[in-house]
Design brief:
single chain; 44% helix; 17% strand
């Protein structure tokens, strides 16, 4: 692979060539699909906004290297901020998109040099330049506090704040200031936190961490002593560990940032062995934004894993996993849903869940069902309606009626 970078120094400290695994590639691709859908939805359906601001608080170097296990060939993979720059540059041609800002930060000076180099390279594709890029090299806590005033001044722009730590490092105190100090900023901001699970072997909690800085990061992120974290993880499966970390993080997120649970959505990201290694956790004041996130992520990941599944031999099926479904008790596992990929991204499983959730209830209105889906943390209400109705009727004997003046009604048999 050629090293077309003026900062390349050919050693392990160089940011060019930093390698990532398939879980990170899937996360980047999935995020790109949502970010492609986000800006125009904002300016088209919310008249108070003339533009958007994307904040990447922990941006990294902008490009990475992924080695394809089948071909053993290396591929250059763009990071989130570089993809966002290209997306916003294209959307600035739309007359409703009057402003577009990309604000990127990393504590590492070399990462910011790499970002500048790569964005300048991409900028040659677009003339005139209409995306305003702000670079910063600060500790993330300092950066968040620094930009609150700048975000407040751009009151006609919607904000998507992307917090993507490479290690366990969530600065709740800084995020709390962002959400509590200025009500105008809070009302205009959507937040995405990528949270990697501790069954990822390269980042799993080693017992008895001796490095005081690493220990402090874990305890700060999960607001719990390391020994207590380890005790909670005893005898848990990989899936159960992921669930524990997710539940803990979302609980802290809601409490510290004054967020309601029904304002949160999440999307698990999987590796090549169908084990979940990331959650993309999303917050918005807008239920429509939340549903756009769920619908976009569902479509992207569902299509991706359907294509992957076709290429996998039957012998690659993995152990059966359980799935948490919010406040509703988990359903008894069935053989046809033996992987959590199926449960998060399968209309067949959504239908089964809904049939058991509404078991024996008659005359459930379309609005009631849609409200249920709107509030759910990962089942979308868009893009699945026809398939969902057909599956409910054919597989679970749900009777769907529609009378004049009454609207669509669902009649669920006893499960």
């Amino acid at each position: 692979m050629s090293h077309d970078c003026e900062y390349y120094n050919g050693n392990n400290d160089c940011y060019f060539g930093r390698k990532i695994h398939i879980g990170t590639v899937n996360k980047l691709d999935t995020m790109e699909k949502y970010i492609e859908a986000w800006p125009l939805k904002v300016v088209q359906f919310q008249e108070k906004y003339n533009g958007v601001i994307f904040v990447d608080a922990m941006c990294g170097p902008g490009e990475y290297v992924y080695t394809d296990k089948k071909t053993q060939k290396e591929k250059t993979i763009q990071g989130t901020s570089l993809r966002v720059y290209n997306i916003l540059s294209k959307y600035r041609k739309n007359p409703k998109m009057q402003k577009a800002y990309l604000m990127i930060n990393d504590h590492n000076e070399q990462a910011i040099k790499c970002q500048k180099c790569r964005i300048e390279r991409e900028s040659k594709k677009y003339y005139p330049q209409k995306v305003v890029v702000h670079y910063s090299q600060r500790d993330v806590s300092e950066y968040i506090e620094q930009i609150i005033q700048a975000l407040s001044a751009k009151s006609d722009c919607h904000i998507l704040f992307f917090y993507d730590p490479f290690k366990v490092d969530i600065r709740w105190a800084a995020l709390e200031k962002l959400f509590r100090r200025n009500i105008d900023v809070r009302n205009r901001i959507d937040l995405i936190i990528t949270h990697f699970h501790q069954n990822d072997p390269s980042r799993a909690i080693p017992r008895g961490i001796k490095d005081p800085q690493k220990r402090a990061r874990y305890e700060q992120t999960y607001e719990m002593q390391l020994e207590a974290i380890e005790n909670n993880l005893k005898n848990l499966t990989g899936y159960e560990r992921s669930k524990w970390f997710r539940d803990r993080m979302v609980e802290i997120m809601c409490r510290r940032l004054s967020i309601k649970p029904d304002q949160v959505a999440y999307a698990p990201i999987f590796n090549s062995r169908d084990s979940s290694v990331y959650d993309i956790v999303f917050f918005s004041n807008s239920k429509r934004a939340k549903d756009l996130f769920k619908s976009t992520i569902y479509k992207t990941i569902n299509e991706h894993y359907k294509s992957v599944a076709k290429s996998k031999p039957e012998s690659e099926n993995h152990q059966q996993l359980s799935l948490d479904l919010g406040d509703i008790e988990e359903l008894t596992p069935k053989e046809e849903f033996n992987k959590d990929i199926d449960r998060y991204y399968s209309v067949s499983y959504f239908a089964r869940y809904i049939a058991e959730r509404f078991s024996g209830k008659k005359g459930i209105s379309k609005d009631t069902l849609e409200s249920f889906l709107f509030n759910h943390p990962f089942i979308p209400s868009q893009g699945i309606k026809v398939e969902l109705d057909n599956t409910l009727k054919n597989d679970y004997q749900v009777k769907i009626t529609q009378k004049r003046g009454e609207g669509k009604r669902y009649h669920f048999p006893e499960a």
